[in-house]
Amino acid sequence: MVTLEEQQRSTAQLSGSEDINSTIRQFFCSNKTYNDMATLFFNPQEAAIHQLFHQDGTFSPVTLSIFFLLYFLLACWTYGVSVPSGLFVPSLLCGAAFGRLVANILKVKLGLAIYSGTFALIGAAAFLGGVVRMTISLTVILIESTNEITYGLPIMITLMVAKWTGDFFNKGIYDIHIQLKGVPLLEWETEVEMDKLTASDIMEPNLTYVYPHTRVQSLVSILRTTVYHAFPVVTENRQNERDFMKGNILISNNIRFK
Q: Rounded to two decimals, what is the model's pTM?
């Protein structure tokens, strides 16, 4: 661990002013230098995202690669153990680190004069959009977090491409988790074979019902002879039976649905 930290010690010079940002971690570095890996790991997630978006200093490609891999594996692990750890902020952080890594590679390999924070923002939007498959609401959230309305169109395009790419392979993380947990949920679109079904195909012809003063023995018998556990409680409609029904017929006899 000591050797890794010594190798990742950044030699980038800080600004000439003595007012150093409180989120920058020098760790064991000398004066006017900072440790880029400690700045990412030893800060809260919100502060690390702010550093990736707005920090003009250098984050080495090795640091960004290690940080991205570790945070991605930890995010997958914590989400899989069913603890309220969250998925929104870790996805933003992983995407911002990967976007900043791409920006550094373009700077070194192609010599492009680009701003790394913009790539971090687009990377965060692409990563989070591919995980949760959100478009409009996520665009609004990212625009409000950056206070830059000019990024609206690039972020929207990024989220749409991320959603289409993710849908080509599988469903979103929340849809997959709903299926794993077996939560009953109606889909947005019905299956093809359901288009030919009518109401009579799913209605129960012989409904089991109970009265408010049913004996316990009868209730036990009903529970033993049926496969479901929800029963309508009905009463006799004595007041309006002359207007709506002929004879002494129970309202429950007209109920024919599950």
A: 0.64
